[in-house]
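Structure ticket #2291
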Amino acid sequence: MMKLEISSTKQLSGEKAAADAARAISGALAERGAANVILATGASQFEMLGVLAEAALDWRRVSCFHLDEYIGMPTTHPASFCKYLQERFVDVLPRSPAAFHFVDGLADPQAECDRLGGLIAEHPIDVAMIGIGENGHLAFNDPPADFQTDAAYLVVELDEACRRQQFGEGWFPTLDDVPTQAISMSIPQIMRSRRIICTVPDERKARAVQAAVEGPVTPDVPASILQRHAAATLYLDEPAASLLTR
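Resolution: structure written out below.
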């Protein structure tokens, strides 16, 4: 059952999400001696990742995957998700993770999906730290999302709402500069995570949050699938939760 945690500010919401993630990772390390996690990018993850990077965890025993990357995107580009995670997370950890499996946007897309699919099959995910897009997407699974695929990673087309969000967040100089395709972790793969910690701040996400939490489970609102996860928590600030009726 999906749970909600609503905080007064974005910073507090990120701190609570990071504390929850740290507890879950610590539990996996205590139980199995290793942990496997998924990390997301975007403006919604700034506060959460900043606090998580300071957590007292033995990252040398943690293997990390990330959700998605634009096809054709070099790691030197300001909008590269690999660059984002390297600079904002990996480089500030006290010790390097056991492994960080980046999505290579310059590789052959299907070959990269197959490579990552093989890796993640060997690393069942303990904790997925994700967000929700303005159009309700999870990773780059824009509506209508594929809830049935067996693939762990997919080549996806980015819809205009998704591309406008990326432009609006300042990652690209113009809308035309936003790529139209990406490699994305699939919805079923995300849902296989033992714990899902979803950080969703800002008023611009309020409509997507309301549809995901209070609407039906539908591919037209990809994040609505979280209603079916046994251990998913949404960390919201008050603006993001402003349209909720219960």
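Closing remark: The chain has one domain: 3-237.
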